[in-house]
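As a warm-up, study this chain.
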Amino acid sequence: MRLVLIPAQLTRGGISSLLQIINYDTELFIGVMVLLGNIPLLIWGWRYLGGPRFALRTAFAVVSFSILIDVLTPFLPTDGLAENILLNTLYGAIGSGIGFGFV
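Now compare it with the structure written out below.
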């Protein structure tokens, strides 16, 4: 997300991308926003989807994702992987596909 989508101002969809759009105006830390935005979904998942086991695994994934977005920022290039928006779109799609495959 920090390497491809945010520098090119591209979004995928979902709560993370909605918060990414809000981040363009507010300049808050995107990781903190993602963490706070996923709390209602986590509560809903706890209650209706799978109980504590589901909630703990999901909380681990959300917290890890949120922390890594902000912690890795100083180590990544500010312009992203490529200056071409088409290449950034392609890299973002490949990265999302791999991530969805792991899920």
